[in-house]
Amino acid sequence: MNIKRYETKIVITNLEAFNEFMFWMYSKTFFTEKFPSRQINSLYFDTQDLKSANENLVGLSNRRKLRLRWYESLLSLKLEEKIREDRVNSKKYYEIDRASIEAIHINEANALRKFMAIVDNCPELSHTYLIPTLFVNYNRRYLEEPNGIRLTIDTEIKFSDPRFTKNFLSGANTISYSPRIVEIKYPQDMKNYVSKLLGQSKFTPSRHSKYLVGLSNFQHVKYL
What we know:
9-stranded antiparallel β-sheet
């Protein structure tokens, strides 16, 4: 199911502010842990001139970005496109041949080539030449209110450049990113509720993209 929702982000840059946020969240809201935390891995694809990144930089209201995403195991691998239309977010998933996933081994030298083949072999994406542009991994905590509003907290964020780091999946030549990223995800009819909820806190939502932050760390774009 392709669920359309808003996403509000809060960037927390130091431990003191994070502790204050957690105290507010547990004492003033109804968020509770929904799932165990887990590691998320994302391999982003873009055109050679970084069309997706540049559309984000200029703030186009309608834009897309493509990534391969998996959790602890590659068996969870998904090819997904994140779609933004007039500030509302949704995802589109593309079918992957399971045999292609099972053939990938994280530590092998040609793993990147096999990831690229998954994208190249997707008929719906054949009209555009896409290359891997950034690898991101981080730890995510999952919380939820009884009304269905979800909140995630991303920590231990690391970036690698797959174009210039052969063994990027092994953690070689990574750049660590210390801020913690909070994302609140909610249906369109809960917009006023979330706005009121955050208005009772000291935390200000801000625009943020891990994809752009990672690219800027490798000097491919200028961001923040």
